[in-house]
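[Q] Does anyone have a clean structure-token version of this?
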Amino acid sequence: MTHFVRVQTADFDLGVEVATLRAGNPGVGAVASFIGCVRDLNDGDAVSGMFLEHYPGMTERELTQICETAAARWSVFDTLVVHRVGALQPLDQIVLVAVSSAHRGDAFRACEFIMDYLKTRAPFWKREATPAGSRWVEARASDDAAAARWTDTSAVA
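[A] Here you go.
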């Protein structure tokens, strides 16, 4: 089992990333993936751009730990997280989470878990450009609630 984690400024290609994740493993019966993109509207305000910052080294370690936790909970082969940093515009891809497994249920749940935990535990900071000026994106209660549901073991069956 491998956990591929990258933090980068460059864009990524879903097809290439999934092909790499599946490569050489005939046991893969499912790949679940999620791509997050920059929206042009947030909290009712127009967004013309976003700048993402991270804590180098610490961010990659936390992302790897999240993937390890998911792999301990579900039967998965490999996990992948690619998260972009730097200046981004509406329509740009921000994050890719992908999980390979023998079965779709494990892949879906592990992928969702990784994304929920990434949103609440990984050290990223987002600053949006709006007509009123630059602002930091605050943590959302809905993200905390999504991550908290995984502490209920009945939610992982």
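[Q] Thanks! Anything notable?
[A] The first strand starts at residue 2 and ends at 8.
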